[in-house]
Design goal:
Nucleotidyltransferase, domain 5; Arc Repressor Mutant, subunit A; five-stranded mixed barrel; 30 helices; five-stranded mixed beta sheet; DNA polymerase, domain 1; alpha/beta
Amino acid sequence: MDMIKTLAQELSIKPWQAEAAVKLIDEGNTIPFIARYRKEATGELNDEVLRALGERLTYLRNLEEKKQQVLSSIEEQGKLTEELKNQIEAAQTMVVVDDLYRPFRPKRRTRAMIAREKGLEGLANVILLQMTKEPLEKEAESYISEEKGVASAAEALAGAKDILAESISDEADYRMHIRKLTFQKGMLTSAAKDPGQQSVYEMYYTYEEPVNKAAGHRILALNRGENEKILTVKIAAPEDDILRYLKKQIITKDNPVTAPVLEEVIEDSYKRLIAPAIERDIRNELTEKAEDGAIRVFGKNLTQLLMQPPIAGKVVLGWDPAFRTGCKLAVVDATGKVLDTTVVYPTAPTTEKKIREAKDTVEKLIRKYHVSLISLGNGTASRESEQVIVDLLKEINEPVSYAIVNEAGASVYSASKLATEEFPNFDVGQRSAASIARRLQDPLAELVKIDPKSIGVGQYQHDMNQKKLSEALTGVVEDCVNRVGVDLNTASASLLEYISGISKPIAKNIVAYREANGRFTNRRQLLKVGKLGPKAFEQCAGFLRITGGDNPLDATSVHPESYDAATKLLSKLGYSPEGVEKGNLTGIVMLAGRSKNLSKELEIGDITLMDIAKELEKPGRDPREEMPKPILRTDVLEMKDLKPGMILKGTVLNVIDFGAFVDIGVHQDGLVHISQMTDRYIKHPLEAVSVGDIVEVKILDVDLQKKRISLTMKLGK
């Protein structure tokens, strides 16, 4: 198999781009590094395409390895023909390789194997040749043998049928055809084990849809219902079509002696051996595709969440709501340092006195530390806490607003080893409140401390392949962190370990070096850090920023390998390096674009030249600035206040296959169904919205009893 050609076709890129990307990956370069600093070599392939290429490359290499193992195994058995070798080498998937290998794979003792040991293969061949005119019982008599354990003609026939059933089942072409037929014409069905039991799976109690049309989220829902022993899920195959096909292939002569037996054998082979395996294969394939789709959605949602703009320069009060145990508060300064923590009890079980005390405490904190923003977690008792906050803000007449923050994963973080190291003297509630405050200040820096799976922006994350999910989400976090870049002198070890080329031990060594030697003044000092060699330096240097250091270029995403070119560029266009620090190099992109042969003079490519010019014009630009800012609120709405037709602003919290959940400022999130997003046809909600988007929505329906809010984005303007 020509891997380069296959990768180019699958990803719709040119063969030279695929070849360059494979070479760079094999040399140990990370995806963020290739995407950012090797655009020239790859023709500007982005991180998404490069990750897909990396995954497919691994799959294709594993496929090649499997082919070699299979070929070697069949050759050792002395059964490898030229035709079979060509078929295996041409196979495009693991499933096809498995099909071809099946007849030669070492098996546990089967009925057919026992029958062969009894010497019944000859009788099976007689039936298969369909030439005999003798009754089969008579043919079978000659195979009766006390020594071999064949007591009667009926026993001999039964053994011969078992041999034939297995050989039909092992035929790769039959399996491929049946798999295709089942996929095209089969129905995916589900039924309730107990129809009287109430559950969230009621819509699947009597359910069927074509296998080839089954949506990913329904596959995952059916799998979960089956795992929870509420549903029985099956594939109803087009049995008549399949049996007709097998009979046509196998019964080649109109022989009244052999035809009925072969029909019986075909039916047994299909129902007992082929159908269960094909059903398993197809369900595995459906699950795999559904998981890949869910992981992609999860990844897109996580990207949007991580790339939410930071709210810089504000003192924030983090509020972790709860009932019985009290609400934990933490005041955090503009740099993320915790100034104060306390607990208040304004939620049930409470009294007017406790509510008053809570308000007084919060007011004191606001005035003492000049708090301008309250970050409220959206967990249990959030709604009740919000009411207390709003009432207080009306009383004190201070310029303070609040925002509701998704606190998913905060409890996971607060109980983690990292949180214990960061706040050794705090309890889990105080840590959680501090994390909720910091999430508003710098979502990326805070969220990287949490396992991406615990952030809660997907569906069915607990039901899928956890290794695949972890790898995909780690890749997403990596891309986001490297896209933004980090301050080398303030970044935590948990943030640094997501930087290209930096492992966990190196991240810890960077922080230890910083603590022992003071702040970094230039990027080259990184080479003095333990375990950080030239290759790691090449991969990470461009993503690490130093402000106020020895070289103004260290504060930009210009890579040290391009410093000479950047310095010459500044000189040629009449700018000084100091201008980078002052941020007054406006117009450099335009001048660089106009200058002919400039890239040749600087000995760099055109793409690299423009990248350097863009970075010099806006040094250290944060891509998150372009994202919508969180909605800051000063008042509260209740669900009973909502009326159909009301138009509100909301934040998209989660995007799933059939719609999006939107926070509109009441305790219950509203659902915008995919059909209510836009007038144009869209295949997936992600074509219309992303997590973190600020959207205008109209109330369609409010069901107080079921706590459901239906929304539309079609405002009829």
